[in-house]
Amino acid sequence: FLSPQVDSANAGRVLASDAAVFLKKSGLTDLILGKIWDLADTDGKGILNKQEFFVALRLVACAQNGLDVSLSSLNLPVPPPRFTDTSSPLLLSGTVSSDVPWAVKLEDKAKYDAIFDSLNPVNGLLSGDKVKPVLLNSKLPVDILGRVWELSDIDHDGMLDRDEFAVAMFLVYCALEKEPVPMSLPAALVPPSKRKPISVPGAMPLIPSSTKESHQSLPPVGILAAKTPLTQ
Question: Keywords, A to Z (predicted)?
Fold first, then answer.
């Protein structure tokens, strides 16, 4: 019932070491995956049986779609979990097309660019120290802001370029409008400049429909840096 990737001994159960390698392909952070494992491994033995493994997969799907990683989320309707290795029989293959429109609208991007430029980027990049005050001005919880940073620093260099900064601002405004910040970056939010022809399983939701509707204009929040001349 399990892929040979995770049940190499064909024993009907999955060891923590094998599951860790497989679950990492979900693109979720180690913190989230650890929480998923703790919930799935009900007896704490470091081994998952069939039912527990499917609970883990279900929780991965919940996390990838911005839902809380909790047992209460298991009954909610979510698409199948997505992993980067398409050789698994659990997966359906597809590609993230460069034709998928970027979720950041042109008019919003212009405003984000103005904020970016006001923060004195060096070589087109902003350090975490320069971005942090802008994020904190949103008054969002620190754990949410940490996830925003982690998702927007797409190349994991500890700096944000112009497009990555736009992703961060987009996610902040989502959170301010009570939209859940996803656990992994949706395809539509990956800037076209950072898209690669990689294979991604299944069809993934772009952004919640309510988000599409609510981003017709930016809400009047006090997130802009003090020296930015922009006003809503």
Answer: Calcium, Metal-binding, Receptor
Nearest to residue 149, comparing CAs of 128, 129, 175?
A: 128
CA atoms within 13 A on the CB side of 90: 23
Strands (E), 103-229: 126-127, 159-160
How far apart are the C-alpha atoms of 224 and 176, rounded to whole Å?
Answer: 14
Q: Of 57, 62, 61, whose CA–CA distance to 73 is shortest?
A: 62
CB atoms within 10 A of CB 6: 20
Model confidence pLDDT, tens digit, residues 30-42: 888 888 888 988 8
Rounded Cα distance between 185 and 96, Å, is 12
DSSP label at residue 26: T
Letter string b/e over residues 160-169, b meaning 16 or more CB atoms within 10 A of that residue's CB: bbbbbbbbbb
Residues 6+ apart with CB under 8 A from 104: 112, 166, 167, 170, 189, 191
Max intra-chain CA distance, the chain? 64
Strand partners, 125: 122
Output helix, strand, coil percentages for the chain, rounded to the nearest 5: 40, 5, 55
Count CA atoms closer than 13 A to 18's CA, side-chain side.
Answer: 18
Residue with tokens 């006001």: 118
pLDDT, one tens digit per residue, over 104-114 is 999 999 999 99
Q: Please give the Cα distance from 99 to 131 (Å, whole number).
A: 30
